[in-house]
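Supplementary Note 3. Input sequence used for the single-chain structure prediction.
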Amino acid sequence: MERLQKVMANYGVASRRKCEKIIEEGRVKVNGVIITEMGIKVSPEDKIEVDGQLISGRPKQKYYLLNKPVGYVTTADDPQGRKTVLDLISKNERVFPVGRLDIMTSGLLLITNDGDLAFKLTHPSFTVEKTYKVTINKDMEEKEVDLLEKGVPLEDGMTAPAKAHKAKSSKGSCEIILTIHEGKNRQVRRMISYFGYKVISLERIKYSFLNLDGVKVGNYRELHREEIAKLYNLAKKIT
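The predicted structure, written as discrete structure tokens, is reproduced below.
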């Protein structure tokens, strides 16, 4: 017996958190009964329907690394009709993004239908290094780069120690490589804004051991078996 939202995620319906929302919205039936409460456990013999569609036969698990362009929202669908990252994936794929990059941020994004791994990688207690290339509107002072590394006070608390260095600099702009391991909302942009600078462009170039080598903007590739195993190993402490 497993929790309903976990089973739904394993069938590729959506991430585990999204599945919880789908249940709360009354869109799920188990053996013909609408379920809206968390904690319900189901067995392989139970009949599960989502939006009137029976889910069965666990799909083949897919794992993709996408180089997200600017202008795409990181959701499976968008009420405002904007382009989503799934528009870049084959229409026959039933997958979803792991975590978020805001619409004006480009770079490395994981896409999967493995709800269990997605849950682990986005769990608040999971920490992994994420590296960003940030271009700002003028040269940043070295003492401010040092403060980026030590921690910046934001509205929702002090950021954890990070890694930062200037890759390029001039009077009109500055390129900073910043590595963090937290997941605060729009964290990198807010860290830069704290010093009064404007972000011209923001790109995630690494996620732990994964990078964008060989993947052009707007394209994606499948993760190798060894890479999937490494991700699970990183997240193995999350239940």
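The chain has a mean pLDDT of 91. Residues 63-124+212-234 form a domain with the Alpha-Beta Plaits fold (CATH 3.30.70.580).
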